[in-house]
Amino acid sequence: MMSIDDLIAAGLVAPEARDELAAVGERYAIAVNETVASLIDRDDRDDPIARQFVPTAAERITTPEERADPIGDAARSPVEGLVHRYPDRVLLKLLHVCPVYCRFCFRRESVGPGGETHLSPDALDKAFAYLADHREIFEVILTGGDPLILSLRRLDEIFARLRAVAHVQVVRIHSRVPVVAPALVTQALAHLLRGSGKTVYVALHANHPRELNDAAAAACATLIDAGIPMLSQSVLLRGVNDDAETLAALMRRFVALRIKPYYLHHPDLARGTSHFRLSIGEGQRLVATLRGKLSGLCQPRYMLDIPGGFGKVPLDSVMPGEDGAYRLADFRGVTHRYPPKINAIKT
């Protein structure tokens, strides 16, 4: 966790911005480690790496459609720490801390060191009891927080408990660690995941090709060479990757590192993040530039998490209605308006 004064001392924030950023630091977690700081061009006031991690006064603006839980985790959480949105898979949120904090994070209201940092033993017991009782669950997605900052001992304990649930066959880990803390990706970690008794995938979150430098490439190779397949997750962000050249370079870099592009997320309606959001139409036009110009290996799915906990929907070909809003059908066939009506939003 960093203070605004820490950011000023590191040359990442101008001293005159201290007062206007104080309110941001009081509300949302801030952390920029040395690895991320080294990626930032301090001479570029619009640096796309800084934009992802360094707070700005724009985060003080909350628009009417924004919400504390934009993808509806709470609505689909049968027990603490577990989200069961789709029939055959669940999210298991083991911890609520990260090595760095993204300024656009959809869980920004719940992550950070201000409260409980890890799922309690009692809550974890209840989560595993739920897994054992629900034989339809094929895949467990470890998330949080960033699960790869857990100690090897702790990860080994988690996988030992997962091995006891025979119907869970696949474990997916969502992480930024190979990019923002590559030293944590060791041969010992790769060996643990490979020998976990489950089929393990690692989904890497990165949004700009400069994040995928030599250190990140080496960390990813450590996992992939050990037999751990990797997928990518990126968020389409204004001022970061909202141009065809950058987006193409990012997807090509993933593929060159043996990481399959998976999801390109439309930004969620998290509070204080409107400055990152593009329109769906803008996103569709950008994604269309990838088709036919890049290898099929480089094509992500452009996705939106329907607010309220109704799951993801592809945005490739959806069209707005006469009122400018979209009608999106979830995986159950229920149609939802996007953006949602303001009076239907719960904060």
Question: Would you give an account of this structure?
Answer:
The protein contains 11 helices and 11 strands. It is of the alpha/beta class and 347 residues long. It is globular, with a radius of gyration of 20 Å.
Helicity level, as a percent range? 25-40%
Number of helices: 11
Structural class: alpha/beta
- How far apart, in Å, are the first and last alpha carbons? 26 Å
- Arithmetic mean pLDDT: 95
Instruction: Give the topology string: H per helix, E per strand.
Output: HHHHEEHEHEHHEHEHEHEEEE
Strand content: 15-25%
Kindly summarize this structure in a few lines.
The chain has 347 residues and is an alpha/beta fold. It is built from eleven helices and eleven strands. It has helices at 4-9, 18-27, 34-39, 48-53, 121-133, 152-163, 177-180, 187-194, 214-225, 244-256, 280-290, and strands at 82-86, 89-93, 139-143, 170-175, 199-205, 230-235, 259-265, 301-305, 312-314, 326-329, 335-338.
Write the layout of secondary structure elements.
Elements: H1 4-9, H2 18-27, H3 34-39, H4 48-53, E1 82-86, E2 89-93, H5 121-133, E3 139-143, H6 152-163, E4 170-175, H7 177-180, H8 187-194, E5 199-205, H9 214-225, E6 230-235, H10 244-256, E7 259-265, H11 280-290, E8 301-305, E9 312-314, E10 326-329, E11 335-338
Parallel strand pairs: 2-3, 3-4, 4-5, 5-6, 6-7, 7-8
Antiparallel strand pairs: 1-2, 8-9, 10-11
Task: Describe this protein with a few key phrases.
347 residues; alpha/beta; 9-stranded mixed beta sheet; two-stranded antiparallel sheet; 11 strands
